[in-house]
Design brief:
Elements: H1 2-5, H2 8-50, E1 54-55, H3 56-60, E2 74-81, E3 87-94, E4 97-108, E5 113-117, E6 121-122, E7 134-143, E8 162-163, H4 168-171, E9 179-190, H5 210-243
Parallel strand pairs: 1-2, 3-8, 5-9
Antiparallel strand pairs: 2-4, 2-7, 3-4, 4-5, 4-6, 7-9
Helix pairs in contact: 2-5
Length: about 250
């Protein structure tokens, strides 16, 4: 029995099975962690969306909050849109249509600038101008966007009018005063913004298939163990038959 189980061929089988099971079990736990992260994300977005809107200063005064931690809260701000500082986020799609997001630079009474994603408009329509005069906006806080692998890049220098993403650090130098470290997706405006703009799509709050993938990887690892046991059993049975006198 030891000779059979310790043969080079069987040792290779043992090591391969161990490696396979370890990899698949780790993939299962990885999917389980992704499920937990998704549940936490969904709960956080729902909870923050139910809270009363905060002012900019009240939002920034939350304890131990970096700009990334402020995402999905509701914020209300009043100011005037700067003329000539409009931007367009290009290469977007929403509801199956290609289009752009017009971005307005709302200057608050203290001079700070809040970037406002005013909505989505299809490519066959011209982006409408932002409301003039004093404007009060209610928006959902979003974190500055970063380039992901495979995405197009914005030029690193020069003034931009069309952008691939809302990268606040890249946009801020071309604006006349300090820019807040987050932007907002517009939910409502007083006076109202153009009716041709569609509201930015709500965040997707589905759990996804992570749990089913977790079960799948654990089942695969069990199948690998069953296959290993079957092969070992056949090898031992063949060895016993070879030793049995005919």
């Amino acid at each position: 029995m030891l000779r059979v189980l310790g043969s080079p061929k069987m040792i290779g089988l043992h090591l391969f099975t161990i490696l396979l099971v370890v990899v698949m079990v780790n993939l299962g736990f990885w999917q389980l962690r992704r499920h937990d992260e998704r549940v936490t994300f969904n709960d956080s977005v729902r909870a923050r969306s139910r809270e009363a809107p905060r002012s900019v200063d009240a939002l920034l005064a939350l304890p131990s909050r970096s700009p990334a931690d402020l995402e999905w809260y509701l914020v209300s701000a009043t100011g005037r849109y700067l003329t000539g500082e409009d931007l367009l986020v290009v290469n977007l799609s929403q509801d199956g249509r290609a289009g752009v997001d017009p971005i307005g630079a709302l200057q608050l009474d203290d001079g700070r600038i809040l970037l406002v994603n005013r909505g989505f408009i299809p490519l066959d329509q011209a982006a409408p101008p932002a409301p003039s005069g004093t404007v009060t906006v209610l928006g959902r806080v979003r974190n500055s966007q970063e380039r992901r692998r495979g995405e197009l890049s914005d030029p690193t220098t020069g003034e931009l009018r069309e952008i691939q993403r809302i990268d606040i650090a890249r946009i801020a130098p071309q604006l006349p005063s300090a820019v807040l470290p987050f932007y907002v997706d517009l939910l409502s405006s007083t006076p109202p913004d153009s009716p041709t703009l569609s509201r930015i799509a709500e965040p997707t709050l589905t759990i996804g298939s992570h749990l089913s993938y977790t079960v799948q990887w654990f089942v695969f690892s069990l199948c690998a163990l069953v296959a290993w046991a079957f092969i070992v059993r056949r090898a031992l049975a063949a060895a016993r038959r070879a030793l049995t006198p005919t």
